[in-house]
Inverse folding.
């Protein structure tokens, strides 16, 4: 069974909420990514979302743009990210999703990339700029490779489109909780309760809510409405701050633990 | 629908039957088959954007289609193009350039004489009218050379809309005149410092703004690029260039031209000129990309020379990228052509071999800039100077009685400081 599906089944059985961490791969370098992944697994993070650095990340706010730049500066390529996933897999079964812009896959070759990802131990892909309309063989290839194609739903997604998207997705539905790019904000969006209710009317897939969630309090609030909460920029910001410190992993783990604990209390 | 934005300049004392005959032929065959209903030009085009923008793009497409069928929209569009922008622009016979090159008769389509100084305002007028129909109170734009930014700031001022223009920091510096113009017109200019600080980064930032403010804001994209329906819409707002030129050349020469020439950045001025002639097999077309410091040097923006199939900023087309799919740095003396990808319809026309694409280096473009100034008394934009360089190279291979229409897409005021420094002009002591 796919590790994402397995994890959500397990969470449901235990009646617990999931916590998803986003970090940029190769920030500050790929071995740190590997060590961070293992640390996250050890403190109960349910899914690791790895951003594959791209030169033009137009859905990302400044914090994640800078992370991508640091990743590129240390020579991070899609191939090397897959190798890092394979290295994580030797020690950990944490479900891994690649957060990626389509041109990187397109250049690699769609079918080849999906096969390579499955082989490396990736469990799902979240392709930011590949709406279902442009997918072509994507959904089919993903299914055959046993990977979850994770689709986004946004506050601007109308009902009929929502119904169609959630039927094509797998693993979980990623609800982008606000109109905007990734990044931290002071308040969680008011649309979350209404939109998660709408999504549930059309699918039994679990819902993860992300974009703009950065504190334990916000994570706890959002976890009331969803099966999982995603935190990215706030963690990436910590990595930016301690990137060169010898105790980077320790410090980031400490921060992430406060978020995990908040979500697990719900 | 594909005729939306078409403006008939009116048959003023020419052979109307001849003109109508050509006009009739034009409205059929290949030009109406692309893009398809999902915005694809063969394998190119499409709509590769984050989910938040999918519905707004569908709404824009629907509003655009409704406006195409609405005679009131067309009347309004024509009214502003004529009364505010000064259309039709002349088709001017460049006698001394023709004599100098010793080849074909060269006509210049004088988009440089349009209000704000370039063809860009044709599209900005069309899109601001759409924005108003959609009830948007704010417009945003990207700009490279600053001409599209100025055009958008202008229409925003005219209609009292808030306007933010994103421009790479490098471009702000090399096109400073246009930064001041935009500010004078009441627009906020945001200098974008990411990446190589030129047009591509400005588009990224404009898309981030749009995704954040999508309910109040319309993004006036300035070229025939980006997610569907932009390439279609921009082409149709710009086709007025070719529609006019076609009628004007029939009036002057009583026959169609043998060659059309235009520079190609995203490709809006080129597609605007080419489109109404696509079904005329005797009319050849030449698009001129930015060769920068040379293709071998790897410092250029000639996507058809060094590019490959890729997906960037909403569409699939030719793209300058490395082996991993990271977008490569580009270089051109011309900010408006300094972009890593090309409009999807141009990629399609190249595959069909309907349009030939070449390039002109920075040096050739600057030479052409000076030549046109001194021979014709016209200071062209550096972008348009690439088209002039293109015809300088091509003319010797053509016959004396051949006819060429070159799209002089903009004027060069914005470039005078840069060119003066480059060719060593000094202030009098």
């Amino acid at each position: 069974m796919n590790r994402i599906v397995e994890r959500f089944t397990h969470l449901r059985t235990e009646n617990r909420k999931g916590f998803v961490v986003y970090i940029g791969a190769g920030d500050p370098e790929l071995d740190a990514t590997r060590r961070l992944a293992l640390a996250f697994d050890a403190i109960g993070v349910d899914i690791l979302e790895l951003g594959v650095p791209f030169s033009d990340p137009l859905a990302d706010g400044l914090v994640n743009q800078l992370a991508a730049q640091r990743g590129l500066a240390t020579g991070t390529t899609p191939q090397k990210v897959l190798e890092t996933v394979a290295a994580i897999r030797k020690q950990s079964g944490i479900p891994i999703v690649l957060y990626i812009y389509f041109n990187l896959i397109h250049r690699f070759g769609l079918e080849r990339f999906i096969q390579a990802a499955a082989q490396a131990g990736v469990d799902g892909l979240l392709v930011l700029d590949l709406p279902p309309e442009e997918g072509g063989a994507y959904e089919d290839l993903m299914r055959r490779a046993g990977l979850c194609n994770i689709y986004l739903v946004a506050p601007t997604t109308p009902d009929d489109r929502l119904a169609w998207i959630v039927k094509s997705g797998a693993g979980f539905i990623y609800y982008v909780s606000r109109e905007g790019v990734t990044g931290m904000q002071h308040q969680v969006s008011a649309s979350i309760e209404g939109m998660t209710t709408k999504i549930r009317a059309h699918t039994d897939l679990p819902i993860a809510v992300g974009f703009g969630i950065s504190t334990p309090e916000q994570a706890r609030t959002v976890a009331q409405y969803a099966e999982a909460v995603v935190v990215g920029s706030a963690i990436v910001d910590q990595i930016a701050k301690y990137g060169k410190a010898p105790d980077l992993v320790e410090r980031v783990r400490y921060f992430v633990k406060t978020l995990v604990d908040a979500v697990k209390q719900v | 629908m594909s005729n939306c934005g078409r403006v008939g300049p009116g048959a003023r004392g020419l052979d109307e039957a001849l003109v109508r005959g050509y006009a009739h032929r034009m409205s059929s065959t290949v030009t109406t088959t692309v893009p398809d209903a999902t915005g694809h030009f063969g394998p190119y085009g499409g709509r590769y954007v984050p989910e938040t923008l999918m519905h707004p793009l569908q709404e824009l497409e629907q509003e655009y289609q409704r406006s195409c069928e609405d005679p009131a929209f067309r009347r309004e569009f024509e009214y502003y193009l004529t009364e505010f922008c000064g259309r039709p622009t002349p088709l001017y016979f460049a006698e001394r350039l023709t004599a100098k090159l010793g080849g074909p008769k060269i006509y210049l389509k004088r988009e440089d004489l349009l209000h704000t100084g370039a063809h860009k305002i044709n599209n900005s007028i069309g899109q601001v009218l759409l924005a108003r129909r959609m009830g948007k109170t704010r417009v945003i734009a990207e700009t490279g050379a600053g001409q599209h930014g100025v055009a958008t700031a202008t229409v925003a001022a005219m209609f009292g809309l808030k306007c933010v223009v994103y421009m790479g920091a490098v471009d702000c510096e090399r096109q400073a005149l246009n930064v001041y113009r935009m500010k004078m017109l009441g627009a906020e200019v945001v200098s974008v410092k990411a990446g190589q600080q030129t047009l591509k980064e400005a588009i990224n930032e404009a898309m981030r703004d749009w995704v954040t403010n999508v309910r109040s804001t319309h993004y006036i994209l300035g070229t025939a690029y980006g997610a569907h329906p932009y390439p279609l819409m921009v082409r149709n707002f710009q086709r007025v260039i070719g529609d006019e030129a076609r009628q004007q050349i029939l009036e002057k020469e009583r026959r169609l031209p043998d060659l059309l020439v235009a520079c190609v950045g995203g490709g809006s001025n080129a597609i605007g000129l080419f489109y109404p002639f696509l079904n005329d097999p005797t009319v050849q077309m030449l698009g001129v990309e930015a060769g920068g410091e040379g293709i071998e040097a790897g410092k250029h923006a000639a996507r058809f020379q060094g590019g490959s199939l890729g997906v960037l900023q909403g569409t699939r087309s030719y793209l300058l990228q490395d082996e991993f799919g990271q977008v490569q740095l580009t270089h051109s003396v011309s900010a408006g052509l300094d972009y890593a990808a090309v409009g999807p319809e141009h990629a399609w026309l190249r595959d069909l071999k309907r349009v030939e694409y070449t390039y002109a280096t920075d040096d050739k473009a600057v030479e052409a800039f000076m030549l046109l100034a001194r021979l014709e008394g016209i200071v062209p934009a550096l972008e348009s100077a690439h088209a002039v360089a293109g015809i300088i190279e091509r003319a010797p291979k053509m016959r004396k009685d051949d006819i060429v229409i070159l799209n002089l897409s903009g004027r060069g005021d914005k470039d005078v400081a840069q060119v003066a420094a480059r060719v060593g002009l000094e202030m009098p002591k």
Q: What stands out?
A: The mean pLDDT of chain B is 93.
